[in-house]
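Just wondering, can you check both lines?
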Amino acid sequence: MKLNSLLFAAESDTKGEKRTPAVYIPTIYFAEGLPYVLVNIVSVAFYTKLGIPDSLIGLYTSLLMWPWIIKMFWGPVVDKYYTKRTWLLFMQITCAALFVFIAAGLNADSFFYSTLILFGIIAFVSATHDISIDGFYMLSITQKQQAFFVGIRNLFYRFAMIFGTGALYNIVGKIEANYGIEYSWISAFLICAVLFAVLTMFHCWYLPYPAADIQRNTFSTPSDDDKESYAGFIKYYVSVFKQFFLQKKIIPILAFILLFRFGEALLVKMSQPFLIRSMEEGGLGLSIGVVGDIYGFIGLISLMIGGILGGWAIAKFGLRKCIWPMALALNLPNLLYVYLAYVKPPLTQVAAAIAIEQFGYGVGFSAFMMFLIHISKGENKTSLYAIATGVMALGLMIPGMISGFIREWLGYQNFFIFATLLTIPGMITIFFIPLEDDKH
């Protein structure tokens, strides 16, 4: 299939319109990534600047990850009621409103708990938003296009992370210098609210109405007698989980999802502290600005090239032929951190190492996400994909939670060696997972 047909091919939707996937897929995945980075990353800097103790920050911001882990339990609700397009738009405008509420909550005496509750609600809304977007992605384009766009969608998800930790931090810093900390964060969340309102309006106008994205008014399982009944929904709900957890080779599938990114998740959690901490503490002693420049420019270009290349390769050659090279591309760059920890080289080598690591991440993550799509087939694919990504989130949270303790125990040098070794079990699971390629 030619590149132009992958990027721009679009069938008429139920309204008779043709919408270009290359236009709306980047924007919906940017919208998916932004609430996640605000809740899980920006909130830490937010509370630190406002004087909250590290113990409370670590405890409560870690708990905010749970909606992404347990979203599988309400995935069937999104799959069953209304359309994915409707869910997507409603969650986006809700996020915009909640960002306004956080900005307003900064003036409250108990701002920590009030904003924390709002972050928790945003986490729930964002996890639901993820389900609807991923379902819309699978329903609005062909499987061949899904394989091609998997790298592009991951790229724009990461754009959202760079916006949150790069551009937004720069805005906060500049406003803080002139107007103070509180006003700087109020401005930041209002900017996010306006951005999400604009995205909602654009998506309301441009997103297609795919023929496959229909509102199911009846339960197709297990019988017509149970239509719209509580008992019927429970049976449908159970059937979705049975469909996922009783599929062939489920044990290797679960092992792959939980272990494939284990070493990466350990390393990523400690990579930025390693870059920032002083050499006396075992780090590289880089400033926040330098780290931001490396990730925001060199790392971003490398990630973009890796993500697009990964999606193109899977679309052309299939997942079976690509998964091993992509697994190595994801995991072998961990050795570069071992080199950095031992040698502590000049900045040019540090930047080159991060560029290679980000390129490998873009390539390897494309294969991982395509596998999750591959195992989420059938009538309830949105719910099945929500279950798969919920298991993925658990596989990231567990190593992230223990990474700091292991780092303090081993030191940075041995920690990065340990993280590299822990990539091996995940790669071993590749021998056992189903990798049939669908060429249509």
About this structure: The chain has 18 helices and no strands. Confidence is low (pLDDT under 50) at residues 217-223. The radius of gyration is 22 Å. The chain has two domains: 18-210, 234-440.
